[in-house]
Amino acid sequence: MTSIRNGLAFFVAVLVLVSCAGTSAPSKQEMILGSWEVSIQGQTAVLNFTETEVEVADFGMSFPYEWVDEDTIRMDAMGQIVNSTVEFESPDKMIQNSDQGTMEYIRVN
Fold it and tell me: pTM of the prediction?
């Protein structure tokens, strides 16, 4: 009976390890999707990121963007091309660094 219990415990432990190993963190391409609040030149705005566009909700404008690599997006903001490195401090806090400076975004639920 003890060997059956030990065998069952071992099987459950292996099953837990395999299921944890199969779970990967979401990519930046997935994490960026949704609504984010940002302060732009002292004014707060909400930006909605889809897979291909950034919509500035308060102004009714949108800009296309694309992923250059797994860390960098290229945005076309009214003819001005901006490359930004995207980092996530948490699922609800995104930092974008570009030649124009650093922007901190907070997820809006």
Answer: 0.75
Torsion of CA 94, 96, 102, 108, to 10 degrees: -40
Distance CA(4)–CA(19), nearest Å, equals: 22
3-state secondary structure of 37: strand
What is the rounded distance in angstroms from the CA atom of residue 87 to the CA atom of residue 42? 22
pLDDT digits (tens, 9 = 90+) for 21-36: 556 889 999 999 999 9
pLDDT tens-digit series, residues 43-89: 999 999 999 999 998 889 999 999 999 999 999 988 999 999 999 99
Measured distance CA(53)–CA(79) in Å, rounded: 14
Phi, psi of 108 (to 5 degrees): -105, 125
Q: Which residues partner with 74 through β-bridges? A: 66, 83
CA 12, distance to chain mean position in Å, is 33
